[in-house]
Amino acid sequence: MQNIRLIFNQQLITFIYIIFFLSLLTLGSNSLLAESSILPSTSEPTKFVLLSAPKSINDFLEKHIELPEEPFTSDMAQKTFLRRTTIEINELLATRGYFSPVVTIAKKTEKNTEIPEIIVDPGERTRVESVQIEFLGDIVSDKEFQKSITQWRKTWPLKAGKSFRSAKWEEAKAALLSKVTYEKYAAARIVKSEAIVDKENAKATLYVLIDSGPAFYFGELKITGLERYDTEMIENYKPFRTGEPYSKDHIHQFQIALQNIPHFGNVSVNIDSDVDQHAAIPVHVTVTETESQSIAIGGGYSSNNGARAEINYSNHDFLNRTLNFNTLLRLEQKRQTFFTGVNTLPNENNIYYALGASLQRTDIEDLKTVRERVDAARVYQTHNMQWQYSLNWQREKKRPKGAVNQTVKALALDWHFRYHDVDDPVNIRRGHVSEFKMGGGLESILSDQDFLRLYGQQQNWWPIGKRDVIYLRGEAGYTFASSRFGIPQEYLFRAGGLRSVRGYDFLSIGVNEGDAIVGGRVMATGTAEYTHWFMQNWGAAAFVDAGSAADTIKDMDLFLGYGAGIRWRSPAGPLGLDVARGHKTGTIRVHFSMIVNF
Description:
3-stranded mixed β-sheet
């Protein structure tokens, strides 16, 4: 054994010597290469024209002016270049607000050679002395727009005293015209704009005259591209009525609504701003129909329910009556769902109807449930609001570990209201979402006992600086009943996990029943989260969650969770990886949610 160790040690020493020797060779060769690479860099490239300007504009000029890299072929070529460059410098400086520059040509001796030097004195930067914004057309006598005109003048960016730049001048005019044409005055145009520059005093007087033209009102739809469907289908999605004032926002909402239904692939909605038809401007809608039947396969992962796989069959021309038929099979580690249903398209009052049936099995926190459900719903929906009434009957088999098994039946009438006002539905920085639910059943009408469930949730986003966001969420619910027994879990409350109290397992906060955690009659949770986006698509978040779920308010015990996470803006929305600590248990949990379609 000692011989083996000795041989091994000798081999190790020999190996170290070899490595050391090779390192010396490498360092020597690198130093030689370094010396050879340093030598050329010490000699600066030969210059044939020099440019001298104040630091504030030197980089700008060097970026836009190409100085010669080879000697001039003749004196005439040099003079031509200098003359042309002088003109370019004057034009470039004018875009930056310098209208009286002094550009001189001098000679400078370098290495016994005279080199022409362009010396630039930009002079005083021109500033706005006064601004006059005037209007013509129907907007002048339109009382509804008087406040808007005042606001447009107030928010004009090139105010008196500001530096004048040609690019900013053009941007300001374009932005103002866009505001005027956004509502009602679709044919507005700039009939006169002047920027009078006093070069001697470095002042600019600005004048803009906009002719709003006549007020525009929506007329009939002109639809092209329909083959299988009736025009009434598209008519029902328009967010305006014939005769209402024109609005770009309504055109945008109309296009989004049509794009969101599966019947069409490409959608285009626009108008022709023809002043001769301003009283009833036609709205042109061009659509491309999609195949009526499709099969989608998807998968994903969530720390709430684990891995997921699903298959979805849809037919949006069911029975050749433009009905939407869907069948979904979703398999998750903790929950498995089969659903089939059909719904109508919205009518002219934004109302549609839905019928559905589902079978769901769950196994969460030692509580196994099997639920059979059928429901019918009437839904009123706009681009930012949903108002729903529904009637459902369900039978739930409840199997808590270490406690008595139960079978619960209920016929419940539900009301659901949701309203959102956000800047971007995918990546929200500013806005809020409000949601309220109310539902219950009577023992005298196919339910095992009387109950009434109330629930509300509020979410708010506020931007901080240019990138950061503060997010606050609060939710609370209460079920009025003599006890929790005889009520389906859907109408009771548990907490924990993503979008609840992080740091604790999904639905692990509730009422102990045997070895299982079941729903209680009261719940309240809240979240405060700060996200800093240090790159365009990458950010970091710090958060605090708190809340509880119990059978009575007196039994509620506060559960606190806090931690930090990483955010990534994907095309489908932000994905999050959070590490949270449950204050009550001291355990660390990772919460992750990602969906991948394929």
